[in-house]
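Re: your question from the hallway

Yes, I did run it. Sequences:
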Amino acid sequence: MAGRTFFWVNAALAALLVILAVVSLMVGPAGLSWRTALQGLFGGEGPAGIIVRDIRLPRTLLALAIGATLGLSGAALQGLLRNPLAEPALFGAPQAAAAASAAVIGFGFASAVSLMVPLAGILGALVSIGGLVAIAGRRASLTVTLLAGLALASFAGAMTALVLNLAPNPYVALEIAFWLLGSLEDRSTDHLTIAAPFFVASWILLAANARAYRALTLGEDAAASLGVDLRRVRAMVVVGVALGVGAAVAITGSISFVGLVAPHLVRRAAGSDPARVLLPGALAGSALLTLADITVRAIPAADELRVGVVTALIGVPFFLAMIFSERRMLEGAPS
Amino acid sequence: MTLVPANDPTVATLVAIDVTVRLGGKTVVERANLTLNRGEVVALVGPNGAGKTTLIRALAGLLPAEGGIALEGRPLGSYSARERARGIAYLPQGHVFHWPLPVASVVALGRHPHGDAWSPASEADRAAVQRALNATGIDGLADRSIVTLSGGERARVALARALATEAPVLLADEPTASLDPRHQLTVMELLRHGARHGAVLAIVHDLLLAARFADRVIVMDRGRLVADAPPKEALTPDRLADVFGVATMNVSTADGDVTIPWRPL
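Structure:
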């Protein structure tokens, strides 16, 4: 019975993704009908084909992949730390990735499309998530975890400010500032090719520990007594989140709250099981980010709204509502 | 180290020889020697801070320890984590559940060491979960969310989870803590029942419960095991005065005299 609901939720999310993907191919400065968009996708000649295949397809695929990565990262971190508020952005991972990537761009080590940027982003995310898991270690309370995340995020923010401060000229500073807001505009197949291996590696690392997250429902000691190798699980999640979030940030800049919101939307359908929430969490992440990216293109504005701004505008009230509804659990001190 | 042969039903399932555990430079358990035999319930008693939880965690392989620990005649260190988990079930203090899972899913976690990511629950797993649900009398709660249960029901779910592993050794850390008298007795009876599969070592604070249900009582004081004997011999008035700092009183019951703590010394 629960299994059937679960199947239909995943099927519905998958169907929604197909629809959103087609809409995403239709929306833009030159509006296309779904028929033209699909013809363009499958080898249609002329401007429609070029627009769809070269501009909108990579953008759509990136939105789907990055949304899935963020949703899966959130769900995996929540499973590892046994806490529904865990999210890469709360722990400074995207901020750290952004700071490292910004430093690489700002100091002219690399152009925006090069392997250096995602590598720097991954390294930044690795440091922040690794730091957090080390601090939040065995039985740190939620308070300690959130404070540590706050500190890491603030420090990453300061590093980014430093890069902007030391930028060789105002154009570079402006470029970094806009990039930081988070956008999928003008991303090409090159971006996708660079980032894809990191995304896939991240998905494998995070999904491979599904059973461990479920065992962690009983706490770390009981999970270890059931044969879960906690050190290995922690390392895999830290590296998995860092690879995925680092690469995502390097491509799009900072996109927050998808990792928090997506798993929450599907948690009830997954019966609160931290293993089963992974797949629908990833699908919901894809849907959210694609929807946000469609929204920024559909809203008429002189300059396109940044998708990171939209997710934050939606995400923060959601986060507050979650704190409000879960305050009893949160007041219960140790995680 | 000489170890007893495996697969001999008359033989000890868990043996600890000179087990010493240091935590943060402090010796918490010092040269502990104990044997758990199949079919027996052993109570581990001692004042707060005596090192009981540390000893039990070391026996479960969760803490590095000096000395030798053997499970079914083989050094514990030679087991893989999963093999060890099939051999020793561990029930930690407090009955913590971080997610509101249904009872059946929680109990099924006891089968974790028997499967892997690529094989869904086998027929044997399902049968073991059902046995654990029946034994603890919670089969009627199988579909309920764990958060809707009372403390006594949660304690039974936690115990069912540990029993579902059907391991030859069950180590339980204060399984009766914060339960009402009836649930304390029920849980102790379940441990007795669980001992049919193997050996049970349980930390118990209620000396009466220990005396009533245990085949042997091990008394721990400041990191050392100071007694290991049937309840009457282990829990003498002198020893209780010495270890717990309590004066005792004898109460006669239908089962004979029992010694109970009466006032602090």
